[in-house]
Design brief:
mainly alpha; three-stranded parallel sheet; 43% helix; disordered C terminus
């Protein structure tokens, strides 16, 4: 019994499918217009163009977050900034002239408290950098997403190694021990106090 040539049969089927797809691709004016979405002779954007756009957008949002005053920057008095909060406001005052971003205060559930904090921020900005338009100090929820405690040490470790160009080696929450690429020692007590304060105000987009 003669067996058909399967290679020839498969090739014929594949060729018929290609012919059918080609014939149905542009058989009227509407479909042809949709096919000509690239102008003949157009030069594509250089490699990395759109990746760089995302990077620049992320950097801009990170820079904007520097002008956000968070809940934890207020002391037990609730209307007075902590020492770190005062330093943050001083940095904001120095950067207002070079940046278009507003100063955003993370709101509470108390409108009266929020207004008192806004007045305190305006006073501090005037003290550190000169009078500021009240319209530039607003309330709003930060766009940066908070971190869980267990996430902060890993992010801090990657940040350290990326800045030094090496790898952290060792144990503990942050891989405490020795490091290669510019840091002689990260610490001698693995994991002790490494994550404290890392997650405060740090966020990802």
């Amino acid at each position: 019994m003669h067996r058909p040539n399967m290679n020839g049969l498969c090739g014929a089927i594949l060729l018929a499918g290609l012919v059918t797809a080609t014939a149905s691709g542009c058989h009227n004016g509407e479909q042809c217009r949709s096919c000509n979405d690239i102008t003949p002779g157009a030069i594509p954007q250089p490699n990395g163009t759109y990746d760089c756009q995302w990077i620049h957008a992320e950097r801009e949002r990170a820079a904007q977050d520097k002008f956000v005053i968070y809940h934890y920057e207020w002391s037990a008095d609730a209307t007075k900034l902590t020492p770190s909060g005062q330093e943050h406001v001083a940095q904001i005052a120095r950067g207002l002239c070079q940046s278009p971003f507003p100063v955003v205060i993370e709101p509470s559930l108390d409108r009266g408290l929020d207004e008192a904090r806004r007045a305190a921020v305006l006073e501090a900005l005037a003290c550190y950098g000169g009078p500021v338009s009240p319209d530039r100090v607003t309330f709003g929820r930060p766009e940066a997403e908070g971190l869980y405690g267990q996430e902060a040490p890993g992010i801090a470790a990657r940040m350290l190694t990326s800045q030094t160009g090496g790898q952290a080696v060792g144990g503990g929450a942050l891989g405490a021990g020795t490091a290669q690429g510019g840091i002689g020692s990260v610490g001698t007590s693995p994991g002790v106090g490494v994550g404290v304060g890392v997650g405060m105000g740090m966020g990802t987009y």
